[in-house]
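Raw record, unedited: Aminoacyl-tRNA hydrolase
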Amino acid sequence: MDVTRLQPDIHYQFARSGGAGGQNVNKVATKAELRFNIRDSALLTDEERVILEEKLANKLTTDGELVLTHQTERTQLANKEKVTKKFYRLIEKAFEKPKPRRATKPSKASVEERITGKKRKGDIKENRKRVDY
């Protein structure tokens, strides 16, 4: 999927960033907030909408809107670029197919290492017992 085609549905808002910043921190709105409404997007197919709502469920508002922010850079433009890249990476990751898991057996060395570790732990516990003379 070409995520750059979603650009028309992205809305940006800017606010003053928190934290240290010297003289400009109270004057310049450098914090960038990206908003993308998955439910209202005309650029997504129904399948894509369902996939995004499932994969990004914990990042969506109750209205189905994805909100991302970035505020570490000193300029509004840099923060806007960073939050846009973050959005593109998030969308691409949501559409990645998971690599199928292949069942494997543990190697003989790992089994033996686990058993010796258990025996060592058992010996330590055995030595804690009271000894009657």
